[in-house]
């Protein structure tokens, strides 16, 4: 069983799509312009927040948070998450679902 990588940001769909294209992002990106996702997952405190805290969650197939990384250090973060997933038996992240298009920023 693989994992699904998903990113989210508060920027507009157009801004997030441009960011994904510039960065070569190959996983789904969500546009959270109303901050509902950010508030639900503790990345911001209000719907008027200008920016989100960088947090990564590993969520199990039943929807439970298995692990969180606060803050996510861009220099080492991807390697740490991959190492942790490999330790729990996940060898490679799965790609985006077939036919999925980009629309946000991580």
Give the helices and strands, then pairings.
Blueprint: E1 3-4, E2 7-9, H1 13-23, E3 29-31, H2 36-40, E4 56-59, E5 65-69, H3 77-87, E6 93-94
Parallel strand pairs: 1-6, 2-3
Antiparallel strand pairs: 4-5
Number of helices: 3
Domain count: 1
Superfamily at the CATH H level?
Glutaredoxin
Radius of gyration equals 14 Å
**What's the mean pLDDT score?**
80
Helix share bin: 25-40%
Tell me what the structure shows:
The protein has helices at residues 13-23, 36-40, 77-87; strands spanning 3-4, 7-9, 29-31, 56-59, 65-69, 93-94. It is globular, with a radius of gyration of 14 Å. The protein is α/β, with parallel strands linked by helices and 106 residues long. Strand 4 (56-59) and strand 5 (65-69) form a beta hairpin. The longest helix is centred in the first third of the chain and has 11 residues, at 13-23. Helix content is 25%, strand content 18%. The protein is built from three helices and six strands. The strands form three sheets. Strands 1-6 form a two-stranded parallel sheet. Strands 2-3 form a two-stranded parallel sheet. It has one domain (3-93): 3-Layer(aba) Sandwich (Glutaredoxin).
Provide tags for this entry.
Glutaredoxin, two-stranded parallel sheet, single chain, two-stranded parallel ribbon, about 110 residues, 3 helices
């Amino acid at each position: 069983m693989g994992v699904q990588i998903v990113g989210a940001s508060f920027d507009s769909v157009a801004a997030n799509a441009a960011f994904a294209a510039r960065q070569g992002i190959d996983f789904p990106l969500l546009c959270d312009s109303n901050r509902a996702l950010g508030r639900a997952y503790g990345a911001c405190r209000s719907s008027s927040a200008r920016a989100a805290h960088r947090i990564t969650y590993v969520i199990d197939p039943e929807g439970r948070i298995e692990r969180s990384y606060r803050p996510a250090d861009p220099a080492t973060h991807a390697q740490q998450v991959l190492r942790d997933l490999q330790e729990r038996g996940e060898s490679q992240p799965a790609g985006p679902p077939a036919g999925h298009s980009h629309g946000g920023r991580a």
